[in-house]
Amino acid sequence: MTSKPAAGVVAPRRNTRSLQKGQQTRATILDAALGLASHMGLEGLSIGALADVTKMSKSGVFAHFGSREELQIAVVREYHAKFEEEVFFSALREPRGLPRLRALFERWVQRTSVEVDSGCIYISGAVEFDDRPGPVRDALVGMVRDWHAAIRKAILLAQDSGHLVPQADPDQILFEMHGLILSLHHDARFLRSPGALGRAGVGLERILDSFATPAGRQTDAEQRQRQTPAGNGRGASGSSAGNSSGSRSGSSTSTSTSTSSSEPDRSPVVPNRKRG
Q: Which keywords does this chain's UniProt record carry (predicted)?
């Protein structure tokens, strides 16, 4: 004897469609919130402002986030996911060592230069929440520390590959690289200094000149030569000033021999982080 299908067997399909629609609506709200926060800061976010931008009711927006604080934390996480995709994961295509460390910095510079008009949530969030303990500050600190951990590990990998001298202090290199980014953001966004981008590139070359080994310089120069078509300039942090410094680094190592593998390392740099 066969039994009839239960009356509610199609409910999971309807529930799936409803879930997908809910996720799409949430993504739309979050995208609008990210745009607002980039221009107005995390403190500029409100359920009412998002309702106006998305043409939704306040109750509809509230249903997806529950509170302003939850909305701010969701925006921080979304920003970090986009930052990872544009800066971190794309740099993993480069071979470990100096080429990857340079790629991380140059993509970081490129991201910062794009944000001159909109603003960086990491930087603006630090100003807004530096002395305000709570979940939003904790989320910001956690994301920035994750990124610093990625840079620091790339520095350590460069040392393991023989591209940076063993006595180099990874925390000092990280500090100086981060300092260049903060200076770039300040001078380009606040002072509107036209030379800020080039100075960031020159700053990186000076760091590498201080700590790179001959083998590291040669590998870095060879990788950049493969990536740069004839007649074109350098990458994201390049400028005429940056080119002269970069050529100086490369030319001083023509007799050195590289000891690192050119195969990209696909393993994540940030520990215990999921992509996206």
A: DNA-binding, Transcription, Transcription regulation
